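Bumping with the actual sequence this time:
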Amino acid sequence: MGSKAEFEGKTVVVTGAGGGLGSAIVELMAQRGARVIGCDQSSEALGSPHLASRHVFNLLDRASIEASLGAILDGDGVPDILINNAGWTRAETLPALTPDKIEQEIDLNLTGVMHFADPLVKAMAGRGSGSVVFISSVNAIKHFGNPAYAAAKAGINAYAKAIAVELGRGGLRANVVCPGSIRTAAWDHRLAKDPEILGKLQRLYPLGRIVNALEVAEAVAFLASERASGITGVVMPVDAGLTAGCLPFIDDILGA
């Protein structure tokens, strides 16, 4: 675990700062001394007392992205750490896809993320130091549904590796965290509709449970920190073992 002063003097930009995972990342980084700049699509989402600065933009609106980038660089300076967390999906299976949904989910989860990250990444490399962490998904590693979202997140994994390889000599590291299902308010709503779904989930996860937001935030903080100074271009699942193998195959076919 990092020290309480691990990020002292560091400026950290967190997108999707008002969501379940984003809020956990913001709180953890602030507790460890960071000056946290929060970004989300509404000012209402940015009520956390841990935020030193707040910026509102929509990843589907390039003009709002560019305006916020200018405000961040002019008002807050080049960040030391960039955590790209914002993302969203609704089309859960191939039959649910439409041309509009494909475009929206790719634009939101890949194109918009790259539009926002690219100027900051280049500014950090130009300064000669920085750490970038992208929140991707296990859906980018194996197929668990959400095909357009999964394709976009696979693109994020590739983009992070491009940064790691091309800008490493500029002092920049880039890594990816791929969460499985996270126990947030979104899952609480799903459980309220179908309490049995948790038992179904537990059969899939070797740890017998899904992860919580703090567990994912800890992985993000580690990769962002100097403790991970020799790590770049890594795609790290934080998924209670989901992508390690198929537990139901062991249980149902091999009878272990």
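The tokens above came from a reply further down the thread. The mean pLDDT is 95.
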